Amino acid sequence: MPEIANRMSWFGSALHRLWQRTDMLQIAGFSCLIFIGVMFIYGTGQQIGSSAVEFWGKQLQWVFLGFCCWLLLALLDYRIMMRLSWIFYVICLILLVVVLTHGIKVYGARRWLQFGPMRVQPSEFAKIAVLLLLSRLMVLRGFNINRISHLILAGLVVAIPFLLILKEPDLGSAMILIPITAAVIFISDFKWKYILIGALAIFTLGTTEVLNEYYQVRPILKTYQRERIEVFLHPEKDLKRRGWN
After folding, report:
1. Residue where a domain terminates, one of 76, 99, 123
2. pLDDT digits (tens, 9 = 90+) for 160-180
3. How do residues 4-55 score in pLDDT, each as one tens digit?
4. How far apart are alpha carbons 189 and 202 in whole angstroms?
5. Measured between alpha carbons, how far is 88 from 86 in angstroms, rounded to an integer?
6. What is the number of other CB atoms lying within 10 angstroms of the CB of residue 187?
7. Host domain of residue 200
8. pTM for this model (two decimals)
9. Which of 97, 142, 188, 204 has the smallest C-beta neighbourhood within 10 Å, fewest atoms?
10. Quick one: 89 and 137 in the same domain?
11. Signed CA dihedral, 101, 107, 108, 109: sign only
12. What gap in Å lies between CA 207 and CA 115, rounded to an integer?
């Protein structure tokens, strides 16, 4: 009994410390985003009908699970997670490889692994793994992001999961790794001249790709990806289906 009481006391103290250092503005922000996301899923389900109507309920279950994970990680010392970042990253790479051969194929894409009643998307965990490992690299003694060799190493950390996710294919999830990487590098004392050079290169490549897709020189985007952009810009073209939301 004394041992249980001590554990409960520790847990209560941890919760009290968590409450004292909790950023309520952050919680309000992600709560608002979660609410909007659930409402969009609910609206889409009403439009499509059939089993999609229940998707928003499943999303609420994931929200609850995500909140539990957030609470657990908030109670842990972040330095423990940083030390385990390499292991977590490698596990995510293995899952990304496995999903390409043993993943569930839906609408021509292999993005999910089935574990009993639970379906898991490894690319979601890969985003966290890349963020943690990049952060770990930046604070290693002797690591300097302004050195070419170190910058290439950071680039490889991102490029490997990026290409694996792109292979599924899941362009949207792969693209999210780019702003994550840019944000970590930006706050890691990266020299402004390199930032400006990188921004100019990205702008040039982006403009070239837009023109390439517009004039259909050597299009990279698949038909359905191009249709999504067109309907986003001109929802009236397909108002009762893709343009509804």
Report:
1. 76
2. 999 999 998 888 899 999 999
3. 666 677 777 777 776 777 788 888 998 999 999 998 888 877 777 666 677 8
4. 20
5. 6
6. 10
7. 192-245
8. 0.73
9. 142
10. yes
11. negative
12. 42
